Amino acid sequence: MRALHASSAAAGHTLRSVTGETAPVSTQMQPATTRASARHRAERPRQRGNACALIKHAGDNADESVGMREMADEHRDHAVGHHAPGQYARASVRRLRMRTLLVLGALAVATALVGRGLGLHDDRFLAATEALLVCMFAISRVVLPLVDRRDRGASAEEHVGQLLDGLPAPEWRVIHDAPTGHGNIDHVVIGRAGVFMIETKSHPGPVHVRRVHPATLRQVHAERKLIEEATGRSVEGLLVFSRAWVDRPLAKRKGVRVVPARLLLKHLLEQSAVLPASEAEQAYRRLRSALGWESAGHLDRSLQAATRRLTGRIMADRSGAGDRDGGDRGDARIAR
After folding, report:
1. CATH code of residue 104
2. Of the candidates 256, 113, 300, 277, which has an alpha carbon nearest to the alpha carbon of residue 193?
3. Is residue 136 part of a domain?
4. Which of 122, 180, 217, 288 is within CB 3.0–4.6 Å of 293 for a Cys-Cys bond?
5. Do 283 and 190 contact (CB within 8 A), yes or no?
6. Half-sphere exposure of 154 (CA within 13 A, CB side)
7. Which spans in 119-248 are helix H?
């Protein structure tokens, strides 16, 4: 038996020497089908790696698409005119508070440095302390009431803005915080019933229509004329009190209608239609263009179109990757 094994090994060695191949005889005599199956098994990890790389690339493109969409949303919120009610007033309150804190902090630090450098009994330190106390008294009597009044004004605009956002769309178009260059117009409402400019007041009341301050009426008329120039339409000015009791609701004072906030939506919805829908939409577009928001709207739509095209390419890449992966699996099954 040992001699038989030795002769077999010698025959195998002689055959490898003649052919110049290093593979065993059993390997050389394998069927062609078995070798093809082995080759497909060797190539399958590489194919799967290619498919995974393609899907990862598509996923990266999808993340980029989401980023573009978020950037477009942020651009629309800040540039296209979707301002929050009371945004201008709320920002002015924050600025005033920050400036007040900075002034108090600077005076307090300066007083402490003077006391440390010159001594607590030095006349200059006592003068600095008195100046700090005077500043704190002035802030408590002048600045803090101003901050509180502006904060109430911002809250009133936010309250009225929430009411106006309840108007049915697209029959009604609402713009909040329209900038004028020297301030803002609280709200503008455009619909088939016409164009309305709304000035909001946070006076706690009671409010007597015949005693409304003339300066307030002049402010409403000035803002109304600005909207008329921008839209080319007649505009009704509304003076809305957010929380005050009004003795004669919906009455007019020198061309300005005085409205409590609780009756605002009812008054608007009860107005008869005076404009076709197309003309109301045209007035809305003119106002946006005058405010500088229409060009931003074109840019926003371009960003949205680019996002849709990129998303379509990503989905096509993923579909192609799935088809190729499925074909590779089918070829492997056929080979087996």
Report:
1. 3.40.1350.10
2. 277
3. yes
4. 288
5. yes
6. 16
7. 123-138, 144-164, 214-231
Burial 272-306 (b: 16+ CB within 10 A, else e): eeebeeeebbbbbbbbbeebebeebbeebeebeee
**Is 316 a domain residue?**
no
Interval 174-210: pLDDT, tens: 999 998 877 889 999 999 999 999 999 998 879 999 9
Which H/E stretch holds residue 63? helix 32-79
CA 83 – CA 293 distance, rounded (Å): 11
170: domain range? 81-292
pTM of the predicted model as reported, rounded to 2 decimal places = 0.60
* The one-letter amino acid at 267: H
Q: How many domains does the chain have?
A: 1
297 part of a folded domain:
no
| Type of residue numbered 99 | R
Half-sphere exposure of 118 (CA within 13 A, CB side): 15
Q: Which of these, 185, 155, 187, 183, lies nearest to 173 by C-alpha position?
A: 187
Q: How far apart are CA 243 and CA 129, in angstroms?
A: 42
* 33-51 b/e (C-beta count within 10 Å ≥ 16 → b): eeeeeeebeeeeeebeeeb
pLDDT tens per residue, range 29-78 = 444 444 545 555 555 545 545 544 544 544 454 444 444 444 444 344 33
Q: Which residue, among 288, 271, 260, has the nearest Cα to 194 in the 3D structure?
A: 271
The answer to whether residue 244 is domain-embedded is yes
